[in-house]
Amino acid sequence: MKVKLFTIFLCFSTALSAEQIPLSAIDWLAQTRPSPTVPQTNTQETGARSSTGTSVPEISVSPLETINVDSVGLLPPSTTGLPVSIWRNSRGRDVIQLMRAMPNSRTPAIQSVFYSLLLAEADAPQVDNDSGSFLAARIETLIKLGAVNPALALLERASPLPAPLVPTFFDVSLYDSSIPPSCDQVLSMGATYPDDATRIYCVARKGDWLTSTLILQTAEALGTLSDREASLLHAFLETADQDDLFASLPPPSRVSPLEFRLYEAIGAPLSANLLPRAFSNSDLNGDNGWKLQLAAAERLSETGAIGENQLLGIYTLHEPSASGGIWDRVAAFQKLDRALEIGDPDEVAQALDLAWSVFAKTPLKYSFANIFAERLLDIPFAGSDRIYAARVAILSGYFERAAQNLDGQDSFLRAIAEGSFSEVIPQSDTERAIFDAFRAPRIPTAIDALVTQGKLGEVILNALIQFEKGAQGDPQDLLEALSTMRLVGLENTARRAAIAVYLAQDSR
């Protein structure tokens, strides 16, 4: 067992060091997406020199056939702290099953690790004969979370895509109205593209309405379109049949990304809030009004699909012109933001009390804490105000610093933040599970077997899934999940996750 633990420590030592700086689950969204170009060639310097005296690198070119799209990622090992071998010994179908079983966590520490797994540059798992299936599963998971931009960036990084992934690329490009639909790839496949509705739409977007209408008529005759698709396309193309057909359109129960865009194009937009989370990206640009933009930002923040800076920017765009619901959150948020700019401790304390009263019972409390934690900890509070601010900030990546401001209050909470339990005694089943995870960790037999087989990605995914079960009230799952996180070097993740569970028990 000592040899095994030493091996795991070597593999995850970078993960442990990377955790010293709080990782946001959405850091990549602040970066420019890679353009959909061919993969970069490898370069290597040689001793050759040009006539100007500078070194001329030798260019080596890899055939496109050798590129494994399942290995594509956005985050290098230096960023994630995860080894490139994280999936190497796993079967693709096992990893995909685990990814699909992962619930939408509301805990940022868990979100961050899960996103790192989805976006990591790493050797592909073992797949039977379906190249691209692992990438497709990661895209599917990102879309479920609402993380459209990183999903699109992954597909662009994998360019040129194998044919089975082109429809996925097209669908993903439709979720965000600020992104042009990826019709070039669709049209390059011609009649071999598997969906006639998409071909009709893309041909029309290129300006060839006559050809698009002819394809529509042919597809109707062949029965390759649903009644709703045909009706929407007639309305979109403004054919002679549009009025009668459009009047008979049934209300949609399930909507594809293309249907969503067609409804928008014909002047009958659907409410993104009533559709799966990814559709909320269409309201983020503000074209549909600030209230819808706010609702979209809040919804996407819950799963870490957008970053705190983007949420901050949207919350502070305008002054709220109404009250109740979302407007109360915006008003309280802006009041605290202004108070922190002034820096008066009494004014900040009053604003924090108001703001926390409207955010504490919502999934947005973690985003709230991450946005304001550093500034709150810089305010020279005294007495109970200092402790109150610390309990808010401890939900953020500044949890260790916040724990120092608890001033002897809630010793168990401070013990979690510092990872030192020598002077505390657990008082509940939840506290006992957390205590044992740090003092007497227990690793499930099945996880121990995965460690032995070198399936480190599966180990982490199982721990994340088990933590979500533990957070719902199962002490054994909580104990084993936190123990496994610590085994693989995710010490800070375990502490932050434990803090979230510990503080949540006060609100039950």
What does this protein look like?
This protein is an all-alpha fold and 508 residues long. It folds into 3 domains: 1-22 and 67-147 and 444-508, no CATH class; 178-289, no CATH class; 326-409, no CATH class. 55% of the residues lie in helices and 1% in strands. The protein is built from 26 helices and 2 strands. It has helices spanning 2-18, 77-80, 92-101, 108-119, 133-145, 148-157, 166-173, 183-188, 196-205, 209-222, 227-237, 242-247, 257-265, 290-301, 308-315, 326-342, 345-359, 365-378, 384-393, 399-403, 411-418, 429-439, 445-452, 456-471, 475-487, 491-504; strands at residues 42-44, 58-60. The chain has a two-stranded antiparallel ribbon. The radius of gyration is 26 Å and the shape is globular. The two termini are 39 Å apart. The model is unreliable at 1-18 and 20-62 (pLDDT under 50).
Please give the structural blueprint:
Blueprint: H1 2-18, E1 42-44, E2 58-60, H2 77-80, H3 92-101, H4 108-119, H5 133-145, H6 148-157, H7 166-173, H8 183-188, H9 196-205, H10 209-222, H11 227-237, H12 242-247, H13 257-265, H14 290-301, H15 308-315, H16 326-342, H17 345-359, H18 365-378, H19 384-393, H20 399-403, H21 411-418, H22 429-439, H23 445-452, H24 456-471, H25 475-487, H26 491-504
Antiparallel strand pairs: 1-2
Terminal CA distance: 39 Å
Helix content: 55-70%
Structural class, by secondary structure, is mainly alpha
Sheet with most strands: strand arrangement:
1-2
CA-atom Rg in angstroms: 26 Å
Treating each run of at least 4 consecutive H or I residues as one helix, how many helices? 26
Mean pLDDT: 87
Form type: globular
Topology pattern, helix = H, strand = E? HEEHHHHHHHHHHHHHHHHHHHHHHHHH
- Beta-strand portion reads under 5%
Number of strands: 2
Low-pLDDT windows of residues: 1-18, 20-62
Largest sheet: 2 strands, antiparallel
Number of domains: 3
